[in-house]
């Protein structure tokens, strides 16, 4: 019995102690501004064969399985917490970033990989596709723990993009694996098959995610009335249903990632009262999924091998963060007329997390030549992103002016909105006459209606317009409508015609 108990107790003791220490260290790292997830990744490396733990681990199949399940749980939790109102300002730009943006980012990063790593074009573009998408786990985690309240348009764009771009990244990765492993003559056939697969993945993902989410919302409301399950049971019901949707969609050739996110989105909005009690437990499941995934991926990495290609890998990370992501964001957001400060912030916080490392397992399992190179480069890119972009998120938000003041911080609110505020139904013409501002073309407009008409996008809290020597800002919204307008007066402003956004 003793050896059997040792077999049970020692691995459990090691895993539990490692998780406990990582959680405690993660709490302190978050206070210092570093990503909570970075600690789990480093802990896995320390446990591995190059660290003090000395545990040899090369089970890519297990890492692939755990990584996919963990991402499904994280996306489900993110979908459950996303309100339909978020799509008012974030859906269209997020779709552009999650599709065209991933393609542009992957292509430009592939060029950098071709120059820095000496890869042929199919493999260089494959590496670009692996690291080309932002990561839901990293984005959701940092937005929750950073303590920064972002403008609604910025926060919703980042959250929805990270929830929707995984299908495109998976599609590009699988398509380019096919190109890299088949003769050149077969590449056009692979491309056509990949396009068909893309339509199939998005079609099944949207259909099953939305349809099953709609059906389960009704079933969950009925079950809650009949049996009144506790919050823990509700969370298990939602979790098991979400994983079933993910598995079913993946099995029939659809995008399980898209399906589970849409499933959570529909379920969380249609059965809000039934789902809300389960959210606290779901948060715990999501954190456990993130911790397990990053610990296992850190254990899978061999740091000495990654160090041998550190400089070119850092070069690829620099191309991705400083060239590919900014170009993709500017191209995709240009039609939506985002203010330059918001575009700059979104470009900088295109965080990479576990998704690139999970995608880097695909070519290893497919037997692509030099696949270990992709894995270690992806690991360096993720570390660089979490260290540089993740740790500077609060600073970048304040520097670019996309951070909103805390609702109970009156001094900070005055700095952002000005010293005066008026109801949104105040006549704009009356304000112009009282303060000596340039007259407006339509004297029947209220200041709120004038702001909406002058804005180039749906207004959100913190939006600003300059009119003559005054800066007007949205101070409060209710159900998407402006309620209060803040006014800052100075002597430096110049009239800007129709009141362009600043």
UniProtKB/TrEMBL annotation:
GO cellular component terms, A-Z: plasma membrane
Subcellular location field: Cell membrane
Record keywords: Antiport, Cell membrane, Ion transport, Membrane, Transmembrane, Transmembrane helix, Transport
GO BP terms in the entry: proton transmembrane transport
SMART domains attached to this UniProt entry: CorC_HlyC
Membrane topology listed for this record: Multi-pass membrane protein
InterPro entries for this protein: Cation/H_exchanger_TM, FAD-bd_PCMH-like_sf, Na+/solute_symporter_sf, Transptr-assoc_dom
Region forming the signal peptide: none
Presence of the UniProt keyword Transmembrane helix in the record: yes
A molecular function (GO) term: flavin adenine dinucleotide binding
Domain Transporter-associated: from-to ranges: 413-491
Keyword Hydrolase on entry: no
TM helices/strands, residue ranges: 12-42, 62-82, 94-117, 123-143, 164-182, 202-224, 236-264, 284-302, 309-331, 343-362, 374-397
PANTHER family named among the record's database cross-references: K(+)_H(+) ANTIPORTER NHAP2 (PTHR32507:SF7), NA(+)/H(+) ANTIPORTER 1 (PTHR32507)
Protein name from the UniProt record: K(+)/H(+) antiporter NhaP
Naturally occurring in which organism (per UniProt): Tepidimonas thermarum
Gene responsible for this protein: nhaP
